[in-house]
Design a protein that fits this description.
Length: about 270
């Protein structure tokens, strides 16, 4: 009898101290006479309900009394130009290769991580994006394929951006994970305007696929193992002595400028 009373007093005292200290109940309750169940049965002094499952206590989150208090959200970023307005300036025309074309054989699905910039090195008259599109559709370029061709007037899209092309590095990551853009070089085509259109397209694709500027790369970036030289001088007019340098940095700055336009806060919102 005396023992039972002593245990009862210990239990009561420990229970009280546990309740006061706000212990979560997940500690060690193995002390003689102090079972977790005994300690907390019917005790709902907290804002949460305690219950046990298979000997383990689970704590349920307290009801949030402050839920009705209005919380002011941060002001949304209003870019200087909407991404779709920038895309409209690129003037993309879809002209996909049929699935039977050689350029689409063996291709796989892709989540783009890079954007690879090329130039066609095709100086023949009329070798514009439409002419390249026709050649790709008719399998005139072997198994080659890429996603867009740009010139001073348009960007023609040859492949959806969620499938791989074959334009960079045989079976390497350039082909597996990058969107390929070819810039035209045919006679009479403005190089400056072509570069400008390409920079806008790259900026939009960066925005769409969360690709950082460091992953907008020249074809040069991807070594073609087994080929000599492994690093191609492409796009040649954006490289210095066959390597990324001042001209490539200039192109990067242009891409960044357009990307900033559609992603950072500005004084006015221009939409079309
Ligand atoms: Zn190239």
């Amino acid at each position: 009898m005396g023992n039972t009373l002593a245990n009862s007093l210990i239990t009561t005292s420990l229970t009280a101290s546990l309740l006061l200290s706000g212990c979560s109940g997940t500690g060690n309750f193995s002390s003689k006479g102090v079972s977790p169940r005994g300690g907390f049965t019917g005790a709902n002094h907290y804002n949460y309900a305690s219950y046990y499952q298979g000997g383990q206590q689970t704590r349920v989150a307290p009801a949030r009394a402050y839920q009705s208090v209005p919380v002011s959200a941060p002001a949304p970023i209003v870019p200087r130009k909407s991404p779709l307005a920038l895309l409209a300036e690129v003037r993309v025309h879809k002209d996909y290769l049929p699935k039977s074309a050689r350029g689409r054989r063996g291709q796989s699905s892709m989540r783009p991580r890079y954007i690879t910039i090329h130039s066609t090195q095709n100086w023949s008259k009329g070798a514009d994006p439409w002419r390249h599109s026709l050649a790709l559709k008719r399998s005139k370029l072997g198994s080659l394929s890429w996603h867009y061709t740009t010139d001073q007037n348009v960007a023609v899209q040859h492949l959806p951006t969620n499938v791989t092309g074959r334009h960079a590095d045989l079976n390497g990551p350039g082909n597996k994970y990058s969107i390929g853009i070819e810039m035209c070089e045919h006679r009479g085509n403005s190089r400056i305007r072509t570069i400008d259109r390409t920079a806008k397209l790259a900026a939009y694709l960066m925005y769409k696929y969360s690709i950082p500027l460091s992953k907008v790369v020249p074809h040069y970036h991807w070594p073609r193992y087994g080929m000599n030289p492994p690093h191609k001088n492409c796009p040649h007019f954006l490289l210095d002595n066959g390597k990324p340098g001042r001209k490539w940095r200039g192109f990067q700055a242009k891409v960044k400028y357009y990307h900033d336009l559609i992603t950072t806060q500005g004084p006015s919102y221009v939409s079309r």
